[in-house]
Design a protein that fits this description.
The complex is a heterodimer of chains A (about 80) and B (about 180).
Chain A (H helix, E strand, L loop, with lengths): L14 H36 E2 L3 H27 L1
Chain B lengths: L7 E2 L8 E5 L7 H23 L8 H27 L2 E5 L2 E9 L2 E8 L3 E7 L3 H6 L1 E8 L6 E7 L1 H14 L4
Antiparallel strand pairs in B: 2-3, 3-4, 4-5, 6-7, 7-8
The chains are: A mainly alpha (about 80), B alpha+beta (about 180).
């Protein structure tokens, strides 16, 4: 039985263009995700204000870490497109 | 005098002490934790599989790194959101009332409460192999008149907690 080998490199796609549009796509996704992270961070703060538990500091910290990571990756993608 | 917990909430009246806080049993988090682990491992499994099948996309190393970073960022967000659902779905019993805080979505919360004196009946359900093995179940609290009834879902030790709630309600002139 013959094995079918798929090689996307031979489909005539320009690698440079493909990578540029891929970065644009990633930027769009990350922008939406960043909006979600901002909302989550705000929501966590509100929840911690309405229910004060011993774990509040830890949860706020996780939300902050998520926010910083999302911001770093978003800025990296934006810089890669611009530069 | 009952010892209060280090928990307080919005709308707490003066002299009100949170006596116990209940959440769903930690084992109920198993499905999303298992899915998170699977999603974390997926690129590690798919990477060699793609190479084995000779499937290659003209993606630069830089972009591969970005895709992986975004993938793990999404998983982090998914896990955190599920943790928040568990952590902020709380059932509280104070020396004055029962408070049920439900956190459904990003900006949707439902807070129900009733004075302990309104409690009429407390029952619990524990069914199935999983619930019996890990000792968790549901507690149903029926209140007087048109007040809302309370369902504490997937609570650890439902028998013990039913007894504790009954004792608390009885000391406040209910049931």
């Amino acid at each position: 039985m013959e094995t079918i080998v798929l090689d996307f490199g031979n489909l005539g796609i320009n690698a440079g263009d493909f990578n540029f549009w891929l970065q644009i796509f990633l930027l769009a996704i990350l922008t939406l995700y960043f909006i979600y992270v901002v909302l989550i961070t705000k929501q966590v703060r509100l929840l911690n204000e309405s229910i004060r538990t011993p774990g509040a500091t830890f949860i706020n910290l996780i939300a902050l870490v998520q926010f910083i990571l999302a911001a770093i990756i978003l800025i990296t993608v934006a810089l890669l497109i611009l530069l | 005098m009952a010892q209060g917990l280090n928990v307080s909430f919005e709308g707490e009246t003066s002299g009100e002490i949170v006596l116990f806080v209940l959440r769903a049993h930690p084992i109920t988090n198993l499905p999303w934790i298992a899915l998170t682990i699977f999603l974390v491992l997926l690129p590690i499994i798919l990477g060699p599989a793609f190479e084995l099948l000779n499937l290659s996309l003209p993606i630069s190393l830089q972009n591969k790194f970005l895709i992986l970073s975004i993938w793990y960022l999404f998983i982090f967000g998914f896990a955190f959101q599920n943790f928040l659902y568990w952590y902020f779905n709380i059932y509280m019993l104070t020396n004055k009332r029962i408070v049920d805080i439900d956190y459904y979505g990003l900006f949707y919360r439902n807070i129900a409460q009733t004075p302990l004196s309104n409690v009429q009946d407390i029952t619990f359900t524990k069914g199935g192999l999983f619930q019996n093995f890990f000792d968790y179940g549901d507690i149903h609290i029926q209140t007087a008149g048109t007040n809302v009834n309370f369902d504490f879902i997937h609570i650890p030790d439902p028998e013990g907690n039913q007894k504790r709630i009954l004792e608390l309600v009885a000391s406040n002139g209910g049931v």
